[in-house]
Write a structure and sequence with these properties.
The protein contains 13 helices and 2 strands, in the order αααααβαααααβααα. The radius of gyration is 19 Å and the shape is globular.
């Protein structure tokens, strides 16, 4: 126990992070193994959404306990990770949620206007229901809150003890991107640059929100909400495979040029909201 406490408080940041993920994985395996058997999934087989969601839920439901344990050992609080008990966090989260959903909806509308994507609505299929919209919203908030506290909260804080803010952000975003390979393997490789850039944009969102995670959680949740809701209708198609390098392949926007440019624009907007003098001075 003393060695564990030392690894979480005195060790280099990367070792502390490795210990955290190692403990989290060990705690999850007794749940994940029987669940994977029940779902008839064996790695490295491709995982379907119906298999992935229960496994991801079982992993993420442990996240608050893992973070609470680390925070207790380190003498920190969730406020240090960017989640203080403050109404402004909820307000910035709401702003981020609306901005994220509307901006991504606008991106798809632009591509539709250019003829790069098509909407194929089946008359026999019901339009998006309130139940679907609310369930995908809840999913987006849960996933984004968990990932932001871990990757833009805990990881960034740890790494900034050993590295400059930009290097810490780059490493945390790299870990965030690479860990997506664990679920879908080589299918995620085209998205790695986009996932890394997404992580960097969300770090900027935290900086723009005075170190809080409200804006980052909101943006992330809005994007997940928009994509999950559209996916639920199965109405979005990409008719021209020759321009997949622009629109993204297999319905993955971050694997295409449009997704990368979108993130650069969002990042630029966030950058110019920073108090640059104070930030660069720090």
């Amino acid at each position: 126990m003393s060695l564990l406490k030392s690894a979480l408080t005195e060790a280099p940041a990367l070792l502390t992070i490795a210990v955290f993920f190692g403990i989290w994985t060990i705690a999850w395996l007794p749940i994940a193994i029987p669940l994977a058997i029940a779902l008839k999934w064996r790695p490295p087989q491709p995982i379907t959404p119906t298999q992935k969601l229960p496994l991801l839920a079982s992993l993420y439901i442990l996240a608050p306990l893992m973070l609470w344990g680390v925070a207790t050992v380190q003498g920190e609080s969730f406020a240090a990770y960017g989640l203080p008990w403050d109404i402004t966090v909820l307000l910035s989260g709401g702003v981020g949620l609306i901005a994220g959903a509307l901006s991504l909806g606008g991106l798809f509308a632009l591509q539709w206007g250019l003829g790069w994507i098509k909407w194929q609505i089946d008359p026999a299929q019901s339009p998006i229901s309130l139940t679907t919209a609310l369930s995908t919203l809840a999913l987006g908030i849960w996933v984004s809150l968990t990932e932001e506290v871990i990757f833009r909260g805990f990881l960034v804080n740890q790494l900034q003890q050993d590295y400059s803010p930009w290097i810490a952000a780059a490493i945390a975003s790299g870990i965030f991107a690479v860990l997506h390979l664990l679920w879908e393997g080589a299918e995620q490789l085209p998205q790695l640059p986009g996932l890394w850039l997404l992580g960097m944009v969300l770090v900027l969102a935290r900086w723009a929100d005075n170190g809080n995670l409200g804006l980052a959680v909101g943006l992330h949740a809005g994007w997940i909400w928009a994509i999950a809701t559209l996916d639920s209708t199965q109405s979005l198609t990409y008719p021209n495979p020759a321009i997949a390098w622009i629109t993204g392949s297999n319905g993955k926007p971050l694997s295409g040029l449009v997704g990368l440019v979108f993130l650069v624009i969002v990042g630029a907007i966030l950058w110019f909201t920073l108090d640059l003098h104070d930030f660069l001075k720090a």
